[in-house]
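tool=predict chain=A
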Amino acid sequence: MPLGRRSAIGVTTLGLLVLAWFMATGANGLISPGRFPTPADTWTAGLQAMVRGYGDATLVVHVLQSLKLVALGFVVSVAVGVPLGLLMGTSATAEAVLNPVFMLLRPIPPLAWIPLAILWFGLGDTAKIMVIFFAAFVPSVINTQAGVRTIERPLIEAARMLGTPHGRFIREVVVPGAAPMIFTGLRLSLQASWTTLVAAELVGALAGLGHLLNLAQQDLYPGMILVGMICVAIFGALTTALLGLVERRTLTWVRIKGEAA
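tool=predict ok
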């Protein structure tokens, strides 16, 4: 489907969704504004957060704080998770040593780390980054390891028979072959980072979208709650789109390099 047509369909869908929202919460609507805000209430709450601020910070400050936490937690999880997945995927010994520990950590919900994170790092940003890290760490490891296992066995055996140095083997055979699955893991890690962010910011945060949502819930302010949710949705989608752009360009480069070789 052409990009223009796909975009038009997407815009139409969003427009119909807003229309349904307006109809459902209007004067003769099915939902009470006290339970779910009208578009006008949400717009007013958004202007208040932008201009006067809410929760001791403006909406821009809340968004920037959340973006910072997501970026740091995501980058640290990728920096640890992808190399660990490559190691476990290429070395049976490393997998035998590390996999039992990973399998013990994997079922633990990210939010279960919050008490330890607070105990170790207090209520500052480091504790929240730690919680986001554990949420994003698992998908990056699993998908990177799975990506290594999808590489055709004859290709790996040929590289080893030719005596390819280990560093070059990883750079030119393993990483390009596993790249599609690695990026799948990165997308899941980014999604997990945003999902966990709100819960991580519910405790001891002075700014951030999770902090805004928590205050709005305590104040029984549905319009502001929806403003926070919309911001999470928008910036989550934007960061995912940015990662998708990086993925397309990287995979194109990998394919061109492979064809040239």
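The mean pLDDT is 85. Residues 103 and 138 are 10 Å apart (CA to CA).
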